[in-house]
UniProtKB/TrEMBL annotation:
The keyword Zinc applies. It holds the Pfam family GFA. Belongs to the Gfa family. This is Mss4-like protein. Transmembrane segments: none annotated. The lineage of its organism: Eukaryota, Fungi, Fungi incertae sedis, Mucoromycota, Mucoromycotina. Residues 7-118 form the CENP-V/GFA domain. The keyword Signal does not apply. Gene3D superfamilies: glutathione-dependent formaldehyde- activating enzyme (gfa). GO terms for molecular function: carbon-sulfur lyase activity; metal ion binding. PROSITE patterns: CENP_V_GFA (PS51891). SUPFAM superfamilies: Mss4-like. Keywords: Lyase, Metal-binding, Zinc. InterPro entries: CENP-V/GFA (IPR006913), Mss4-like_sf (IPR011057).
Length: 146
């Protein structure tokens, strides 16, 4: 029995393809980010990504994402041919995030939290509503008990 899981993905045009390969016992952290930059970058109400050590992301095509530095320490990777957003990485961080929408099977991962929930879009408020919600990246938002 295999002890690793492989998730394949890539951009819309297929010029960039990857495999995420990780131990079954430690799946990548997955979260929804509601910050304004993620909305702009993906053109969606929020962005969901999985965060994984660089060594677990294997590009299987020759090309690499083009990078746009969206803030002082963040670079966002996208396909230079079709424009699909693919990655998100903080400079000096040993981990890289992969945009879940680029996975071939988006249901293969499940988010565990929301960050920047203070910026949540109206239509996204009910998405995964039972998950913990954070203001910014780490300030837990206490919800009134129902
Ligand atoms: Zn492409
Ligand atoms: Zn964000």
């Amino acid at each position: 029995m295999s002890t690793t899981t492989t998730l394949a993905g890539g951009c819309l045009c297929g010029a960039l393809r990857y495999n995420l390969i990780f131990p079954m016992a430690s799946p990548p952290n997955c979260l929804h980010c509601h910050c304004g930059m993620c909305k702009k970058s993906t053109g969606a109400y929020f962005e969901t990504y999985v965060t994984t050590p660089y060594a677990q992301l294997h590009w299987t095509t020759d090309r690499r994402p083009k990078q746009f530095q969206s803030s002082a320490n963040v670079k966002r990777g996208f396909c230079p041919n079709c424009g699909s957003p693919l990655t998100f990485e903080a400079i000096d961080d040993p981990k890289i995030s992969v945009i879940v929408g680029s996975l071939d099977d988006v249901d293969a991962v499940k988010a565990m939290s929301h960050i920047y929930f203070e910026s949540v879009a109206r239509v996204a408020k009910e998405v995964d509503r039972d998950l913990p919600k954070y203001r910014g990246e780490s300030e837990l938002i206490q919800e009134p008990k129902a």
